[in-house]
């Protein structure tokens, strides 16, 4: 791996590229190439941090020789990562306490002790009693005693049911991702009720001006109950009133103090304290609302999800189980899959209770295009609930008096074919885009898209193709999600963020010079070759009416070709 050239990678791709390089000499060679090339401060810092990590691992730390007074916080942090003896770590902690007594340094050593000790931690009755003290008594010297991150509003032994779906509207219309979420929620809760012998429901939430007209639609797409709040002041999204309304709906007007419920309304249609699950769209407004609602409801949020399922899970983390070294089964857990920050793996986010507080509703926001829009069934029956609450005038101090609607740009969805290009066009960017356009023109219904690497890269394009390289054509997690009959990925490596945007395509054909490119794992056909040679052959074959993918150089991608379900959770 010492021949890796960091100058060939964007910053977002460099981390995954060097993650398997563990040789310090090789890493230093990569660092030299970066300094001789683009010399990016961020890249240099990234490579140097990995060098420091492995240099620290190679060193046999002599704790007696460590002079903490001469070491910075970062130096201490690096040093203690190589110490696995709890007694030595406690000795260092005592030396720091009798020396400079730096809180940040003590925190690092204590964290390492907790990590190393694991199941060896001793839990005395006195410690248990202290942990149960309210923050005001536990930390009498603090002006903000809840700064120890222990919430005091979370419920204890709360009752939770149903999956709620916030159905966003724009310009008076129910947006597609709202329909997608309703369909997925219906599927999840049908399976949930079978698995757990339950009768829990999908609850749609409509907030805005004149949104009652959508009640029949959301029921047709899968809702059992629709909770509606209408007010002519809600004709445009404003996060304070929308958040307050949603949370009042979710808690039935109750407040939660010290883990107990006070106040609230008796509602005929429900008999629980808060929803079990809640979904929001990962749109601009949905991201805003979801973060505020989940914080107000004392729970967590998995943002930008593209996969959801519910099942039991076994956890051994003592923070969640309450007992080190023991496992605990958590039931009915919503597993929320999202691409992780490396760009090459999925993470599965779980929202789990711990022994002293409960995290409900389990919530996530969903990337538009992640699920299919179900066929509406207007014969379905559902209950409509009118939500009434006083809206404070202070929530409406700002109003929009005039606005301009931006051009919606290019919609890549709905086409039979999408031809997408990535960093592989780097040798001749303009020619690469021309070849993609020519191939798209050879089909009856095709459009051209690009990867994020094209949008964020520093490629120079001639004017006649430059319009095809803008962000509006980006495919992926932060771009458009497409599912054409045929998807051609030319010069695209296959980061998970891009995979999210196209892995529901019926047939995926990848063209890449690298036989180990990640995109091969989820392609139906893989052409190992230069896109500058392969794309013209495909275009010629199409124009001659003789297109045969295998004759054009494509071969079945192998066992990984069938892996188009979003990948495995990490």
Automatic annotation (TrEMBL):
GO biological process: fatty acid beta-oxidation using acyl-CoA dehydrogenase
Lineage: Archaea, Methanobacteriati, Methanobacteriota, Stenosarchaea group, Halobacteria
Stretches assigned to the Electron transfer flavoprotein alpha/beta-subunit N-terminal domain: 163-398
Annotated Acidic residues bias: 119-134
Annotated keywords: Electron transport, FAD, Flavoprotein, Transport
Disordered: annotated span: 95-148
PANTHER family: ELECTRON TRANSFER FLAVOPROTEIN ALPHA, ELECTRON TRANSFER FLAVOPROTEIN SUBUNIT ALPHA, MITOCHONDRIAL
Recorded superkingdom: Archaea
PROSITE patterns registered for this protein in UniProt: ETF_ALPHA (PS00696)
Basic and acidic residues: compositionally biased ranges: 95-113, 135-148
Transport as UniProt keyword: yes
SUPFAM superfamilies: Adenine nucleotide alpha hydrolases-like, DHS-like NAD/FAD-binding domain
Similarity comment text for this entry: Belongs to the ETF alpha-subunit/FixB family.
Name assigned to this protein: Electron transfer flavoprotein, alpha subunit
Gene Ontology MF annotations: electron transfer activity; flavin adenine dinucleotide binding
A Pfam match: ETF
InterPro entries, alphabetized: DHS-like_NAD/FAD-binding_dom, ETF_a/b_N, ETF_a/FixB, ETF_asu_C, ETF_asu_C_CS, Rossmann-like_a/b/a_fold
